[in-house]
Design goal:
The complex is a heterodimer of chains A (about 675) and B (about 170).
Chain A lengths: L4 E6 L11 H11 L3 E7 L5 H13 L4 E6 L2 H14 L7 E5 L11 H19 L8 E4 L4 E4 L3 H12 L4 E5 L13 E2 L4 E2 H14 L3 E5 L1 E9 L2 E8 L14 H5 L3 E4 L7 E4 L1 E2 L11 E2 L5 H5 L4 H5 L12 E7 L1 E4 L3 E3 L16 E3 H8 L20 E8 L14 H15 L3 E6 L9 H11 L2 E4 L2 E5 L11 E7 L4 E7 L1 E6 L1 E3 L3 H8 L26 E3 L9 H21 L1 E4 L4 E3 L19 E4 L4 E4 L9 H5 L5 E3 L4 H11 L7 H10 L1
Parallel strand pairs in A: 1-2, 1-3, 3-4, 6-7, 6-18, 7-10, 18-29, 20-27, 21-22, 21-27, 22-23
Antiparallel strand pairs in A: 5-30, 8-9, 11-12, 12-17, 13-14, 15-16, 19-28, 24-25, 25-26, 31-34, 32-33
Chain B lengths: L11 E6 L3 H10 L8 E6 L7 H9 L4 E6 L10 H18 L7 E5 L5 H18 L4 H7 L2 H18 L3
Parallel strand pairs in B: 1-2, 1-3, 3-4
Helix pairs in contact in B: 1-4
The chains are: A alpha/beta (about 675), B alpha/beta (about 170).
Chain lengths: ~675, ~170
Amino acid sequence: MAEKVGIYVCHCGSNIAGMVDVEEVARWAGEHIADVAVARDYKFMCSSLGQQMIAEDIAQKKLTRVVVAACSPHLHEKTFRRACAQAGLNPYLCQMTNLREHCSWVSIDQAAATAKAKALVSAAAERVKHHQPLEPTFVKVNPATLVVGGGIAGLQATLELADAGYHVYLVEREPSVGGHMAQFDKTFPTLDCSACILTPKMSEVGQHENVTLLAYSELQEVNGSVGNFQVKIRKKARYVDDTACTGCGICSEKCPRKVIDHGFEAGLGYRKAVYTPFPQAVPRIPVIDIHSCIWFERGKCRVCEKLCPHHAIDFNQEDQFLELEVGNIVLASGWKLFDCRRIPQYGYGRLANVYTNMEFERLCNAAGPTNGKIVLRDGKSEPKSVAIIHCVGSRDVNFNEHCSGVCCMAALKFGHLVLERTRAEVYSFYIDMRTNQKGYEEFYQRLLAEGMHFVRGKVAEVTDAARLPNEQGKLIVQVEDTLLGMQRRIPVDMVVLMGGLEPQTDAKELGLKCGICCSMSGWYTERHPKLDPVATMTDGVFVAGACQGPKDIPASVVQGAAAAARIQAMISKGAITVEPIVAAIDEETCSGCRICNNLCPFCAIEYDPQKEVSRVTTAMCKGCGTCVAACPAGAITGAHFNNEQILAEIRGALWDAEPEEELQTAYAHDH
Amino acid sequence: MPMTTENFEPKIIAFMCNWCSYRAADLAGTARIKYAPNVRIIRVMCSGRIDPTFVLAALAQGADGVMLTGCHPGECHYVNQNYKALRRYAMLQHTLQQLGLEPERLRLIWASAAEGQQLAEAVDRLVEDIRRLGPLRWPANWQEDGQRLKALAAIEKEHAEASEVPR
């Protein structure tokens, strides 16, 4: 019996109809494509009226197949499948074709776009006739979650889930959770103390009955899929037994080796070879840095071991590997600071009193190396003037095109702190002032009133080469003031470079472990930039915080909580549906050649030596279809992407082609 | 009526993988990047799904060129199945040559989900290259341009090579 196909061409307002003659496509499809029972066009197919139209046709015209020619299936396939299912048609008998992203939006010629649209509709219609009804499979969701990254976004996600009663494994690669926020003194625009709002969350995570905190650990490997991931965590050797250590700190106190702390103190302070990054660290267990420890360097010392009252020091400790089972993963791996040395004309690393923003954060911090005193590198003299340079490494085609989003506000915060604590003049050199969140613009107005100087222009150079008497011994900021329309040289004592936010160096590597990819600038790609900014293309993997793009604290908290909410929804449902796109081997046709066996990266194909056939373990198959393409006997079928379907799609897409007759005949003869 | 080269609009079938290249094409659309309308996209879950037969079927049914696309090496959603596509691409180029077809009619492109611009440029390049090659008039070309003799001459060498492959 011939199928009855319904074809629905969407206008998408003017998004499709503005370039493609949708009425013509629908009319043509109704007349030229075989087995089409009804072909319609409609303003918005995804609207409830559009969906209702499909449902009514299924009921009245007894449609057996549906083609929706609209936008990307990644956006609305679920919508239309659901509409079909509600009308009693198996959802897999519906096929979408992408007239918007793949046709109208990329075309400039209406006639050509309409012709292309016909080919796409024809392809989908030919394909859908070969569709088979499929049933989605159900997978139970493991209620445990893995959160990668213990910055504010990861902490928020962890606490939301743990408070809801679900177990969370929080993996943090540094010795303590807290992330960048732990390094800050104040947070904009309210100027509340960063530690005061962060440390309660940190200790809560450390003590929570539903949280397994795996600090100083890294995600090694991810297997499995949504609902049932198997993850391998490398717990790096601390050389301190975390079960025995009480965090008394005697080891750090007595350690004879002092080194510059390039981590938490951003190079401004010192730490010992055995250390906790900061006093409020969670967990409070120190770590021995083998690159600076005298025992690891020369084979003697072991002072900490001798003095530890709890015998917690263990120089023989090795990395441990933990294997965990979780249902979902949240990546909250954060950001790294742009390396300001990459812009040599700003003098960082060459001119002593040029600071990065992270260094300045530590300088302002009451718990920092200067106890919050804003002083020059000599450690005593207070600057009389401070220049803050915006967009260092951001909004710059030579480095990063993106706006780092947070630096304008951080610069205003710095300005306020300098004005509050010193008598210095503060100059801000900005390109555009971006203060577009709640209370931000008000904070900018406040700084204008407080007397911070704003110079609009991108700084050309920071130099110590004085030309005028008043420039002697100063750092001179050379800038074109684009509001005055003139070049200016402003002598200052201190320069703060607002380095931009960059993706972590190994963000891509971590993403690949979890099966998600990065944008061109290296941030994790979300499932949809507007409607689904927290999920990713891989089900069960979510992103939160600055790993998805530059974000300030409130936005990171929101995204962390959103990721947790999405996961809670899955856990409370208990099971999720998984697409039944898997391969199957017909034992009758299988010759037992075993070509497919080694092709599967998931080891889903097993050979049965008794029967001399190969067999697919459905639960392990991810549906890529490589084995289907490789089977010389054609014994493997890939559900929803079988040969008949794809060949029909090719045929439909080439409905208007004129192959040589000779070939046509030869080909028809073969098939 | 055979098309003249002047009004020749190549028809190209592009196979795109669900995770990277199809998403790159989606991104090109969302970003309103314009490219030649000659390409008709067929979605597969992975570039590893592209059966060599699909390519031959497309060419036999009137496509003037075929584009295979997948995730970048090392970024395949299915670990490494794009390498299988790479192998089949090499094999297909070989086959096409033996059939007397220009192997340039088949092209393999890696495009990540973020590379809408690159994908659009690759489509435009392929369309231009195929336009230059002219319509795929397989049997006619076969007889006219001596490719057939070349292919026949090559067969002996191919056989020799093939028999050297250890079993």
